[in-house]
Amino acid sequence: MDQFMKAALQEAVIGRAEGGIPIGSVIVHDGKIIGRGHNRRVQKGSAILHGEMDALENAGRQSALVYRQCQLYTTLSPCSMCSGAILLYGITQVVIGENRTFMGEEELLRSRGVTVEVLQDERCISMMTEFIRMKPELWNEDIGV
Predict the structure, then answer these.
(1) How many Cβ atoms from other residues are within 10 Å of residue 140's Cβ?
(2) 84-122 tens-digit pLDDT
(3) Which residues are catalytic?
(4) Coil, strand or helix: which one is 118?
(5) 91: nearest Cα among 59, 119, 120, 123
(6) Residue 41: helix, strand or coil by DSSP?
(7) Given its phi and psi angles, is residue 144 left (phi above 0), alpha (psi -120 to 50 degrees) or beta?
(8) What's the chain's average pLDDT?
(9) Do 103 and 79 form a contact (C-beta atoms < 8 A)?
(10) Residue 28 pairs with which residues in a beta bridge?
(11) Helical packing angle, 80-89 and 51-59, nearest 10°
(12) Alpha carbon distance 68, 48 (integer Å)
C-alpha cells in the first residue's frame, strides 16, 4: 500500500474512532497531500460530508488547473455525489481502496476520462465489512437506502 492510500486509511480509522463511518480520502497534488478527510456525516450532522467531500473541503479553494493535476485516493468506491464533485473539479485520477462492499460510479468516471484504479485492499474491505455488519442502519442511511 502506498503512502497516499495509507493516509486515506488513517483518515478512515479516525472516522471510525469518532463514531462515524470509516471512509477516508486524500487529495494529492504534485506528490503532496493538499486535502485529507473522512466521512463526518454523523460527527457533524451533515448531509454531504462523505470522505471525498471532506477532503475537498479541507483542500480549500484551488484553481481548476490545480485540481486537473490532482489524484484522489479513497478507501471506498465513490458514490454519485462524490463522483460528481470529482468530475466538476476535473480530478483526473482516482485510486480506490475497495469496491466489494459498495460499487460507486466508477464507470461514469471512466466514461468521462478519469483514470480509475481499484486496489481491493484487504484492510479497506475488512473495515467496511465489519462496519456494515455492526451498523447496517447507519450504512444504509449513508448510501441513501
Answers:
(1) 11
(2) 999 999 999 999 999 999 999 999 999 999 999 999 999
(3) 52
(4) strand
(5) 59
(6) helix
(7) left
(8) 96
(9) no
(10) 33, 71
(11) 30
(12) 23
